[in-house]
Amino acid sequence: xxxxxxxxxxxxxxxxxxxxxxxxxxxxxxxxxxxxxxxxxxxxxxxxxxxxxxxxxxxxxxxxxxxxxxxxxxxxxxxxxxxxxxxxxxxxxxxxxxxxxxxxxxxxxxxxxxxxxxxxxxxxxxxxxxxxxxxxxxxxxxxxxxxxxxxxxxxxxxxxxxxxxxxxxxxxxxxxxxxxxxxxxxxxxxxxxxxxxxxxxxx
Length: 203
What we know:
Blueprint: H1 2-20, E1 23-42, E2 48-68, E3 73-80, E4 98-108, E5 113-124, E6 132-134, E7 137-149, E8 154-163, E9 170-175, E10 182-202
């Protein structure tokens, strides 16, 4: 009982601090570039497996909610959806779909510069088709980065996202020319670079 009361008091104090602190809402546009590892499996009498890598590109618009714990530390919650499937580009990844949510801590190191650390969760959507298919799973990332406050309401960030999981988020199937033997390409993220442009206003 005593421990529960202490926890409730601490939660109440923290909630009051957040409510009384500087709060911002905003919008961010995050172009992402990442290296996808691909497992290639060729079916047939002479079944074979091989591996290769592809560079992929995506675009994630997201909403953000930020609160300052003090003058040097800010916590930001961001959520959005990749728009890769809408991009008419050979590097666009039509398999990487689902809700993106990030919890980021920003620590000021100077008047207009800050370091970034946090976590990102990609909730991969499940979908099926004759050619393309997605696997329902959660892909967690560690976020490390650097940010610049470019004006009173805008910022620019460079983030490195390191995946904790090497599970396949999707695959596509093709057929060997002149045969009915399928070739399956299964994708997972090796490492991701995020260039984030943000606009925030104070509530």
